[in-house]
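User: I'm preparing a small set of examples for a lab meeting where we compare how different chains pack in three dimensions. I only have the primary sequence for this one, and I'd like the structure in token form so I can line it up with the others. Please keep the answer compact; I'll paste it straight into my notes.
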Amino acid sequence: MRKSRILKSIKDRGLKITPQRQLIAEVLEGNKEHPSAEDVYKKVIEIAPTVSIATVYKTLNSLADLGIIQRLDVGDSKAHFDPDTKSHSHFVCIKCRKIFDVYEELSIPEIDNGFKVLKGQAIYHGLCKDCENSQ
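Assistant: Understood. Below is the structure token output for the 135-residue chain.
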């Protein structure tokens, strides 16, 4: 079995691999659905019903703060999480609310006034193919 990139990143930063972190990493690893904390929590409690939603929130936010996963604000008042930290954008369907990865070459704009851009997010909103075809 392939070693989890998320668990490896946690360990590389000197953090302990707790059972909760391991379970959350398993739920996230390879997940293309960009789940919210509530979505992750629902999957986690299927396996470990004693894990609290507070633990899930804290773990996801810690992983995002460390750059191990991405935290996304797609405009629906809750954070979504993406285990793919490679440079990419996102597309949100305004009808079905699905979030899609968009891999494209985007250059980081040069900003005057002494700013140094370290990271950014581009999130596009519109209709996915399925929703557009169903209209």
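A couple of notes for your slides: The radius of gyration is 17 Å. Residues 37 and 58 are 10 Å apart (CA to CA).

User: Perfect, thanks.
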